[in-house]
Amino acid sequence: MNPETQMQFLYTLRSRGVTDLRVLEAMEKVDRGLFVQGLFADRAYEDRPLSIPCGQTISQPSIVGLMTQALDVRPRDKVLEIGTGSGYQAAILSHLARRVYSVERHRELAIAARKIIDGLGLVNVTVMTSDGSLGLPDQAPFDRILLTAAPEDPPANLLAQLSEGGIMVLPVGQSGAVQTLIKAQKTADGIEYTELCEVRFVPLVEGIAQGA
Ligand code: SAH
Question: What angle do CA 126, 74, 164 make, to 5 degrees?
Answer without folding.
Answer: 90
